[in-house]
Design a protein that fits this description.
Elements lengths: L17 H10 L6 H7 L4 H17 L4 E2 L5 E2 L7 E9 L5 E5 L10 E4 L14 E10 L2 E10 L5 E9 L2 E6 L8 E3 L11 E7 L10 E9 L5 H9 L8 H8 L10 E2 L6 E4 L8 E7 L9 E8 L1 H4 L5 H9 L3 E2 L4 E2 L4 H7 L7 E11 L5 E12 L2 E4 H8 L11 H22 L9 E5 L5 E6 L4 H23 L6 E3 L5 H13 L12 H11 L5 H11 L4 E3 L23 H14 L8 H5 L1 H31 L6 E10 L2 E6 L5 E5 L8 E4 L4 E4 L5 E3 L3 E10 L4 E5 L43
Parallel strand pairs: 5-7, 13-20, 14-21
Antiparallel strand pairs: 1-2, 3-4, 3-6, 4-5, 6-7, 8-9, 8-11, 9-10, 11-12, 15-16, 16-19, 17-18, 19-20, 22-23, 24-25, 26-27, 26-32, 27-28, 29-30, 30-31, 32-33
């Protein structure tokens, strides 16, 4: 048992030893100076001050503390009391996080949660910069409160305009911003009732509502496109390509065979979702004819040769870098590249010559990659197939398109897949079984259905082929000593490991203490929990413990996939990271024009950080759009009773996921049965301080829908009054576990790949 550090005024008057002073410094939420330390320990006189000065010098020399602004001291790599922060976005629980603009410490900076903005102030979005006051929760977690916004980020609000007697009102679309804005007639800009608008905040008046001026009219909220449009503008997604980029795309043409390998006689096929518009990868396999590799396979993965069309420092390149990746909504795609490329020249359409960057892969009978070779080629897809078509053909019911390919193309693909799957199982990847929503729209753009995504072996086949190609790309870069961008996924931090270990121990599971955890350690726990009441809870808490995958020129491996090296190669149409890898491989192997230039090689760290940010931005925007579509789907069922589970626990309430359709919503803490609730972060629970009533992640619940607002995406629930708090499936109400989007490399059996991003992890 460790002693809790005492606060100022609670120490005896005798001079403290070094450990006691260090404990006090570590327990402070902000850096402290000699005056605070002397006051805390009741030190006075010149002798005590000199002794304290020498003691602090010793601590600094030992590396136990660092001296910062105004000679104040704090634990090593601690953040200052006031700092400039950049907002990185909101997590699935609505918590807004940020990172310091400057960070000189080792590794990633501590996580910073921003307190809600003051009433009347617009909420913060990704990319906003603020001057904030910080309070340290622990070495890896801070809480911050905005002092003021910086860089002109203040003043723009997305909302819906409504007329009023004194002019008009704008109701913000951000569910965290409850303050309406006053629009005087002179500032209306001809906005119509119910129109979605971007408005500039005006200087605050002393009394009354804050005022705004309509800057841009975006269309009526009754239009089906409004939901994704709100997400686009809320998260600042670029939607218009510069004219120069459009001209470059329009003038592009398929190259000749000169300098390329002719792959047009190979029956390469694309396998995608039924609603896919671009086909950026094709596959083929045959038994390896080499007698030295009995039972082995020769695979070919051909990827659209985006690097041929998008050259470094071109207008197309600058636009693609700004976007970082494509963003997928139920009703539209915000593409990384103009349609002339993404849906035409870089789409591997059947029967049409297309430039490709391909990799030959030779695997043994156990799925282990033996060798590989990259080529730039010209290909002609034999067929555009869907996952459903391929799976039906494999199951004995081929349609007219798949039947001629069943024995010559589809069967060999499954043969190679069986070996790759064996290799995956043997190395032990992290396998989490968590649901995902798929929103299906009708012909009018309205939500027709929200259901779990189906997943077939055909999905896994493509995924394993893409993973194998990505491994070959990373291996090739390392062998050539060529700088590039790796897809890295670190093991859980020591803090998260310990928190998870304590939680699992409390419910009867053991996470071993070993020098380095492996995915198999988690899989063993998941296997043991499978089929029990703890299954969902264990999956959720293991998911939450995982690190976030990123792009980096420094290879630390991919924990979730249990791979030593991994780089995204297979989707350069929709990920800038893949384009960088293509360019690096072209330069490394002397494969013609479009290779990585010196400037990009020198700036790979900055490129990796930028596209990691755009990836997080896209995921948040996609999730927000799903929330709004879901709220629209539920809007006419207010008052209905649903069953679900607690999918998230935060300081401000409980997130609930419905069993029926996977919809997420919030029970505000203020509506829970009368008590003062404390957030136990380690136990993933809200605990009543008077009654001991506990609401824990994973618990089964019955809830009543009390609000579903398509405008904000806000879905609110309450516990049914008739049943009080006696709901749940355990001995005590809600005793037994919000899913964030999974970290890279965590595969979800039983579901299709998310948001049309079907492969490559």
């Amino acid at each position: 048992m460790t002693d809790t550090p005492r606060r100022p005024g609670s120490f005896p008057g005798s001079f403290p030893d070094k450990d006691t002073v260090l404990s006090f410094i570590r327990s402070s939420t902000t850096p402290v100076g000699k005056r605070e330390i002397a006051r805390a320990f009741k030190l006075s006189g010149s002798d005590d001050r000199e002794r304290l000065k020498d003691l602090l010098k010793e601590l600094e020399a030992d590396g136990a503390v660092e001296r910062g602004r105004n000679k104040r001291v704090a634990p090593p790599q601690a953040l200052p009391e006031v700092a400039v922060l950049e907002v990185t976005g909101a997590d699935a629980d609505g918590e807004v996080s940020a990172r310091p603009i400057t960070w000189t410490g080792e590794g990633n900076p501590p996580r910073i949660f921003l307190m809600p903005e003051r009433k009347g102030h617009p909420t913060l979005g990704a990319g906003d910069r603020v001057l904030a006051k910080l309070s340290r929760i622990n070495d890896r977690l801070y809480e911050a409160r905005t002092i003021r916004r910086l860089d002109g980020t203040v003043g723009r609000v997305l909302g819906v305009y409504y007329p009023a007697a004194d002019g008009g009102r704008i109701v913000p679309t951000d569910k965290r911003n409850k303050t309406e804005l006053l629009v005087l007639p002179a500032n209306r800009n001809d906005a119509e009732p119910g129109e979605l608008v971007l408005a500039d905040l005006l200087p605050a008046a002393r009394l009354g509502l804050p005022q705004a001026r309509v800057a841009e009219r975006l269309g009526h909220t009754a239009e089906p496109r409004a939901v994704s449009l709100i997400a686009v503008h809320t998260h600042g997604l670029p939607t218009d390509f510069p004219p120069a980029a459009l001209r470059e795309a329009a003038h592009a043409a398929v190259p000749s065979l000169t300098g390329r390998t002719d792959l047009r006689d190979l029956p390469l096929v694309t396998i995608d979702g039924a609603d896919a518009c671009d086909f950026d990868d094709a596959v083929w396999a045959e038994p390896d004819p080499d007698p030295a590799n009995p039972g082995g396979w020769h695979l070919l993965v051909a990827i659209a040769d985006v690097a041929y069309y998008v050259r470094p420092n071109s207008a197309l390149d600058r636009a693609a870098y700004e976007r970082g990746n494509s963003v997928y909504f139920p009703d539209r795609v915000v593409p990384m590249l103009p349609e002339a490329l993404s849906n035409d020249l870089c789409s591997l359409r059947p029967g049409e010559d297309r430039a490709c960057f391909a990799v030959h892969l030779w695997i043994d009978r156990h799925g282990v990659l033996q060798r590989h070779r990259f080529v730039r080629g010209l290909m002609r897809s034999a067929a555009r197939l869907t996952y459903e078509q391929v799976q039906a053909a494999r199951d004995g019911a081929p349609d007219e398109a798949a039947a001629p390919l069943l024995e010559t193309v589809i069967a060999p693909l499954y043969g190679a897949y069986a070996c790759l799957w064996e290799a995956r199982q043997r190395r032990g990847t992290l396998e989490l079984d968590l649901p995902e929503r798929r929103v299906r729209l009708d012909e009018r753009g309205r939500v027709a259905e929200i259901a779990a995504r189906e997943r077939f072996d055909s999905h896994r086949l493509i995924e394993e082929f893409m993973i194998c190609a990505n491994v070959a790309a990373a291996d090739s870069l390392e062998r050539a000593s060529m700088p590039g961008l790796f897809r890295v996924h670190d093991q859980p931090s020591l803090d998260k490991q310990e928190t998870l270990r304590e939680f699992l121990t409390g419910i009867g599971y053991t996470l071993p203490r070993v020098p380095r955890l492996a995915p198999a350690h988690f899989t063993a726990i998941l296997d043991r929990a499978a089929g029990t009441a703890d299954s969902q809870l264990v999956s959720e808490v293991i998911l939450r413990s995982q690190s976030q995958a990123e792009y980096s020129p420094e290879n630390i491996g991919h924990f979730g996939l249990s791979l030593d090296r991994y780089a995204h190669f297979t989707s350069p149409i929709r990920r800038y990271a893949d384009l960088i890898v293509h360019r690096a491989l072209i330069r490394a192997h002397g494969l013609g024009p479009g290779g990585l230039d010196d400037a990009a090689m020198a700036g790979l760290t900055d490129i990796g950080e930028h596209i990691s940010m755009t990836e997080r931005r896209a995921a948040t925007a996609e999730r927000d759009a799903i929330d709004r579509f879901t709220a629209a789907f539920l809007a006419d069922r207010v008052g209905a009773l649903f069953t679900g589970r607690i999918s998230g626990v935060t300081r401000f309430g409980l997130f609930i996921r419905l069993d029926e359709n996977g919809a997420d919503g919030l029970i505000p803490a203020s509506t829970l049965p009368d008590d003062q609730y404390e957030h136990d972060e380690r136990a993933h629970a809200l605990v009543g301080q008077r009654t001991g009533r506990t609401y824990r992640l994973g618990a089964a619940v019955k809830v009543v829908l009390i609000e579903a607002d398509p405008l904000t995406g806000s879905t609110l629930f309450a516990l049914p009054r008739a049943e009080g708090d006696s709901v749940g499936d355990t001995d005590h109400p809600l005793q037994s576990g919000h899913s964030t989007h999974p970290p890279e490399g965590v595969r979800f059996p039983g579901r299709a790949t998310r948001k049309q991003r079907k492969r490559g992890r």
